[in-house]
């Protein structure tokens, strides 16, 4: 069976036989897979009234293990987006009643973001559904192939400098 990437690679092979388009077989498929998966994830998150970035913030707070929350800066670093983007996400989540912002009593210049009980309940339900959805998306691969693919992708990410400096990062899984 052929996919869209096979067609593109064949077209480049004919159009420019002097070039080796084989990297497109991997990166083209990763790109297309990301777009398809993102579309599926968007549908799931919308069922919970969330956008992807809002899910990321709630998930980061939930898995951080801190009963007191995280600073906005910690959230920005873990989600790999600008502080402005985090502020927008937090504004929406505060308005929905899922997080609070409070001044850190130890440092009044620092704002601590924490889950509300409603936010914790929502993310607990959403992450369970998210994992079920991810299992569905990976169903074409048995566990051994999933493990092999995960290891190969880790190797590639590490080769490109994507090392985890903070156990809370990144926030978009």
TrEMBL record:
Organism per entry:
Actinomadura decatromicini
> What is the name attached to this protein's record?
MarR family transcriptional regulator
One Pfam annotation, family name?
MarR_2
Alphabetical list of SUPFAM superfamilies matching this protein:
Winged helix' DNA-binding domain
Where would I find the HTH marR-type domain in this sequence?
A: 20-158
Which UniProt keywords are given for this protein, alphabetically ordered?
Answer: DNA-binding, Transcription, Transcription regulation
Q: Name one GO molecular function term.
A: DNA binding
InterPro entries, alphabetized: HTH_MarR-typ, Tscrpt_reg_MarR-type_CS, WH-like_DNA-bd_sf, WH_DNA-bd_sf
